[in-house]
Structure formats: C-alpha cells, structure tokens
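Model it.
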Amino acid sequence: MNWTIKLLFYLSLYTGLFGSDWSIRESYNALFHSRSSTVHATLHVNNLIRHGVENLANNEKTRLSEIGLSYQEDQIIILKSNTLDQSYDTEHFRFYYTLDSTSNDAVENVEYVTTMASIYENVWSFQMDSLGFDSPPVNPNNDHDLYEINIEYLPSNYFAITYGDGSGSSCYSTIKMRNSYTASQFSDHSEIENIQVTASHEFFHAIQFGYNCYEAFWFMEASATWTEDELYNDINDFYRYIPNFFLYPEKAINTETSFMYGTCILFQYIDEHLGGRETIRNTWNFSRDMANPSSDISYKAIDAALNEVNSSLESAVTQMRVANQILSSSTNAGLYAYEEADGYLTVVNPPPKTDYLIFEKGKIQTILNSSLRLYSSHYYSLYTDAPITLNLSELSGHFSLTSVVKINGEEKWVVKHGHELNIDPKIGIEWIVIIVSAKGEEDYDWEYSLQLTDGYSEDFTLYPPYPNPSFGSSIQIDFQVISEQTIQFRIVDIKGREIWNYSQYFPEPTVTQLSWTGKNKLGHPVANGIYFGIMKGNSKTSIYKITYLKK
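Modeled.
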C-alpha cells in the first residue's frame, strides 16, 4: 500500500533563517542536474523541506517524487515506495525492502538486508554507547518503537537520504538506503565499506535532528563526516573531502558546498586536542539548548562546548590552521599534530599556501587584503635572511596573526601568535609561513593590513605551555634559544614560592622542550591550581600562567 507521512514543518517558520529562492534553486539543481558522481542528497532534500518549494515550476514539483517528496496543499509530503512489501527487525531498527525482481527497489537477496542491519546495530552501539549521544526520536505515528530504514532504489549518484520529519526543535526522521552500493561511483571501497560509512553518517543525521531540527547544515555535515572515521577508521572515505578544505582556506567554514564535508577536520582537531569526544558531544548538547528557528547558533554551540575545556572556537580554528600547515604526526608537533597526518598528505600536498612574501632588510612592505570571511584564513610563505617584524592592523573585522617556522633538518616547529611578531632567522630555518585568520561570527569581507619591517635579534623565545589546563597530562614547555646563553626556568605558585626549576647552558641556537610532570622539587605531586612558568636568559624574562589540573 502506498502511504505518506505528513511533514509538519510550516514553511513560514524557516523563511527568515534559511534563505531565498536561490538556495532552493541551488538544491533542486544539485539533486536533478548535477554532473557530479556523488550528490549529498540529505543536505539538499532537507534544504527544500526547510525552505519550501512553492516557487518551483509545476513540472519541477512533480519531479520531487523521484527523491521521495511530494508537494501537496502547501505541504511537503515524504513518500514511501509502495513496493517495499517485506520487513526485517533488529533490536533498534525496522528495515523495509523487497525481493520482487520486477521492482527497481529489489535487493539482490536477504543477506544484503541482514548485513546492513548488523552494520546499523554496530553504528547504534558506537554512537549511543561509546560516543554517548541520545537515541533519535522515532515516528510517533508508528505502532512500534523501532527506527525505520527503507532500502530502495535511489538515483545513481546518491549515497542515501535522511529526511527530517516533524515540528519543533526536536524532530524524528527516516533514512533511505540504496538497494545496491556496487556502481562505479562507489568503487573506491567495497560494498560493505560503503554501507558502513554511509550508515554512520546518515544515522548521525538522525541523532542531530533529535537534538536540533533547525541546526545549520555545515555543522551537521562536518560532524557527521567526523563520526565515519571514528567508527570506521581504516576506510578513510572522508579523505576525498579534505583537499578542498586544505587548498581553499580563504573560504568561510560555513560554506555549504562539498567544502563543508572537509570541515570535519575541525572536529578531528577538537577530538585530538580539545577534550575529545566529550567536547563534540557537548556541541550538540548546547545546540539543543540554544535551538532557535530564527537564528544560526552553530558557532555559539561549538564555542560554548570549547569554553568547557578552557578554549574557544576562535582558538580552535587558529590552532587547526597551524596544524594544517605543519601536517605531522610527530610528537614534536605537540598541540599541532594529527594522528593521521601521513594519510592526509597522500591527498593534500603541499599544505595550504596562498601567496609569497620576500623581505629585504631596510624595505618596508605593506600587504592589504579585503576578502576574509567567517573563520577563514590566508597563508603566506615568507622568505627572509634578516630579522623581521610583522604588524597586523584590523581595518574592519577581527583577525589573528600566527607565524609558523620549520627548523631546518629537524621535526621541530616554532609557532607564535599575536598582532606583532618578530622572527629572527639566525637559527636554521627551512620555511616560514604566516597565517592571518578571521575571527567572529559575522560573515563579511573583512579587511586587514600586514606590515613587514626590520626586526631585531632575540635572546630567546618562550612559547605558550601546553596542554593548559593540563587535565592530568605533563605540561610541555617549548622555547627557542637564539644566541649563546644560560637559560633558567622556574615554576612558582601564586605566592611566588618556587616549585620546580631547570637550568642549562646553550652554546648555540636551538629549539628545545621541557616537560613538567606536575611534581615539585622533591618529586611530590602538586595541588590543583594556578602556577607561573618564568624563563630568564641573558637579557630578558618571559612569564606564562599555567593551570594544573589532575584527572
């Protein structure tokens, strides 16, 4: 029997938030006229649901049935194929399918269904039990409490579709999976591997709809792509998406094209360095708490979750941009390492660079740029034989300035942050990259000025200790010695009492690292609290605050 599920998203609810006829047209064309071998149908289908399709032509509205939608009496109706005459239940799912060979929806055999069902139960266990997310709502109109998945024919370039269904900030959903994943566009992986990453991705959409039906698509797609690699780490399907993100850093992170799937690297960075899975789970907890049909709260939700680990979205993006340049799995990369950096380098080589700067002593240079938007970045390769000072001026908007220096012949990097940075090339330098990043939620073409002037020879440079707060980990203290000297380093408490000390003579320039394990001079663990790291050389003293927290 052919049946329909009425969708209760009232079109006027979304008009102010989600856009215009242009975005509707874009999604329609992507669904029906794309020449790409793969189309991410969930995004575009739900874009039509959110926006409404009343301004499409009548023949275009009729074509909606090809993607499981129907426009009736100013409502979007989700259609179910009338050929799915069999069902298969697991603990958490009901799968509808058919074996009727006369139907385009037919699966090859029951084993295909049972294999998919086993994969979905594995996904459920991982996303509910390991990641700790709430289970998605099921259709309240059903006579059972199982999540429904339809296995049927989908257009050749569609992986799957998850339909958000219902009203309010939390809504239920339905997933449509393909009846085969053996076509040429899926040839990068086996059929089972394609089902695995697709199931992980689409079911996380179901979870997301339960948290916040209004959430921005870029956030939904980037975090869903992250879950694929968490569960099925060896498949690495997301590698196909990250080149665009690496190679086009000037694009805003909310760019809703295939670019947003590569934005999963931001969540990978958060996972590895800023609180792990708990932080990412909290982004969705805050998304649920902040859900609003009239505004995009994705940045606020992510920022709030990062605040819980004494970070921020601005800081996370800045650090991720550095990690994207270094692209190393070496422990020397510390805060800027990626576990799978070697894999990323197979598809991203070289790392992102947008322009070249050559500095000559005594010649002031000024670079003007007016094209940065929402957490985007510009990368500059800098060449200099003389000390150089860089000054960043914000003409409109807000920016961060970062220098990344690769030490010649070593797996070591020197990273500095600030609106005024000095670089002394006395120490052997393999390359220098300057990163300017836009900060804040406003999506404008912001302007900045970057001035290059004569710099100065340095004594030493102490870099921010990390991780900070420690959360039980040893705290790493990186520093660069520019000239011959004895370096003294002390950790003191808030009353100025010395807790730990270090002293070493350096006969030549070098980059090195200290590690403080959270113990005093007698080898006893210190209490949780605020401490200060103080470094003194020939002619200067540097101080950083350290927050030591045990697990």
